[in-house]
Amino acid sequence: MNKKHTLGRWTVEDSADLYLIREWGAEYFSISKEGDVVVTPIRGKKHVSVNLPEIIEGIKARGYDMPVLLRFEDILDSQIVQMHESFRSAIARFDYKGQFKGVYPIKVNQQKQVIEAITRIGQFYHHGLEAGSKAELIAALSFLEDKEACLICNGYKDSEFIDLGLYACKMGYKCFFVLEMPGELDLIIERSRELGIKPLLGVRFKLSTQAGGHWTESGGDRSLFGLTISQIIEVIEKLKSVDMLDCLQLLHYHLGSQIPNIRDIRAAIQEACRVYAGLAQEGAPMGYFDLGGGLAVDYDGSHTNYMNSRNYTLDEYCADIIEAVMEILNEVNIPHPHLITESGRATVAYYSVLLFNIFDTNSIDPGTVPDSLAEDAPEILLNMMDVLKSLNIRNLQECYNDALYYRDQIRQMFKVGDLSLRQRALGDKIFWSIMHRVSDYSKSLKFIPKDLTDIDIALCDTYYANFSVFQSLPDSWAIGHVFPVMPIHRLNERPGRNAILADITCDCDGKIDRFIDKQGISRALRLHALKDNEEYYLGVFLVGAYQETLGDLHNLLGDTNVVSIRVSEDGSHSFVREIEGDSVADVLSYVEYDPKSMTKRFRATAEQAIRESMITPQERREIMNMYEAGLRGYPYFER
Hints:
Largest sheet: 10 strands, mixed
Radius of gyration: 30 Å
Structural class: alpha/beta
Distance between the termini: 35 Å
Oligomer: single chain
Number of helices: 22
Helix content: 40-55%
Number of strands: 25
Strand content: 15-25%
Shape: globular
């Protein structure tokens, strides 16, 4: 740890440095002089900010418990505005002749509130939507009123999907069917002839270029969707044969969801631009170039090409796209197309924060170890005690190795019955006392032996957190994705504990034990000791993309409470939407239980207990009241 974290008075600057909030916060998140996390949701208006602990007090006063998913609608607005203004600036600077027409992929966060907000602010920029299923297309058509915006239809398409999209075209929507598979074209042609409506067509090109990161298989020859060059030629021939080549106006590709390296983005554009130029030279009118998703979020604040980061800014991203497209199309004298990006992750990631409280902790505290052992104590315990007494900074490695050896011997002797329960407990106390001393001494070493580097991880506390990883942060569990995690108050105090977070599920995978760090990934998070009768709150930031959509019902822990905030010019905030989280009855009904039938069955069981003189009628009433209150209650931990 940095020396300034260990010497002198702790300040909020130290906390900002420790939790890297300036690096990943994108100017939306910072720390007040009082030690609270502050949110500044409107770019360019630093005086408009809100305090997270104050928001929590307002949430509690309105009767909602933790955990809560907190949404800042102003951040969503700011992200859309920033993206379009960055592209407009690059277009003007390079004298690009096309326009930028962003679309939001509904799958990234399908919540109605998100789609409402995006279409509302997006209408000023003709920001459209991407639908990858029939349900998403139906949702898009109910909210997208701007006929200048693009509606991109990806994914599998049956007759009903195609008919709906064709009628959308007839109603004036710029609704593009993107051919993902070779067999789709015949069905689109058939339905087009049946309804007498000409479609707007695009084709998805299967890139040979691959990018780094979690989602590298989105591109490359073995990607699941898209057409090869030879299949694209077959599409052209088919369209020419039915006099529909004029319908082909868009080329689409998708490199991946979180592309950390700008070089991969440029390489993909260069390859796809050649295909676009080829389609235009074949006689297709074209005019739209859809680069898919890929604009990354800098989750760890490192500004590198690591998978949880990106080595470019938004302005660099926009400029590189414009420059790369112009370079190739100018060379072959092809008009500049309108550019489409499907930047869902970068649009919504910042606007949601998961807030939760810590309800308990557990630490490896050896307690008091006796100064000496009885002479008749087992030899193995005497040997372990000798290690503890002889330990000093010059023999750390030797004592560490001896302690591990004796610990394993003690465990084996206990298994075969040669040590009692109390003797085993004493051996554990001595062992962990040795580990604590080794850890303390090792901090004074200039070079720490490799074996000793992970001792702090073994000694770190477990903080029991009131949320479910599987429900609220599924990417953290499924693919090891790293989100910024930090306390949202007490940041003017020195955090004195190393900890991992265990969620409320009874699953060994229900934990967070990888955290952002200046050196890469840390296996522990610095947290404050809990105070009696005082809640301790943490936030997980940048969770707006995919996490709500992918969450599951592990341990029947359903959706959390959701609160949406809007901030006024004077810095005051209002609760514009409150969504009560699932009740126990709700989540049970999702997995085919009938709460009314369950209550009836349990009431009969309680009545049988009365007949058997196990409880009284008054006790049955109390038990049933408790049972029914539990069904109505929040699935998460309640004080």
